[in-house]
Amino acid sequence: MAQGRSSIRGARIGSGPLGEPERGDLAPRTTASFWCGNGHRTQPSFAVEAVIPEVWDCPRCGLPAGPDPDNAPAAPGSARYLTHMGFVRQRRSQEEGEALLNEALAKLRGTI
Questions:
Q1: Which residues form the signal peptide (predicted)?
Q2: Is 58 in the same domain as 37?
């Protein structure tokens, strides 16, 4: 028994050739070139009326890219990871921490 295969296999109902006559005219566009610190060049398209940004993220490495190939924007510095104790030590000195600890221990022991 032969398998029946349709000549429109994989097509959706109502689908047709995609093109400008069916979808309408595209908005006028312009391209801008951006270079990152690694020398990658990207050219995104923008509408003619759109304001072109000064910085664009490089799709290859993720660094910020700018319009000048010789003067690429600097990569943002990453903040170092701090634990909860690291944040506490930023706010309090060693003496303040010991005083708070002694007060909490006194409450637990019931002397306060």
A1: none
A2: yes
Residue 23 burial (CB count, 10 A): 8
Q: What is the pLDDT of residue 107?
A: 93
Is 36 annotated in a binding site? The answer is yes
Alpha-helical segments (H) within 5-73: 20-23
pLDDT score at 13: 62
Does residue 83 form part of some domain? yes
Residue 58 annotated as part of some ligand binding site: yes
- Tell me which residue range forms the domain holding 55: 27-66
- Residue 35 located in a structural domain: yes
Please state the domain count of the chain: 2
Cα–Cα distance for residue pair 108/112, rounded to 1 Å: 9
More confidently predicted of 21 and 39: 39
Tell me, yes or no, whether 21 lies in a domain: no
Q: Which residue has the higher pLDDT, 111 or 49?
A: 49
Query: Is 57 one of the annotated binding-site residues?
Result: no
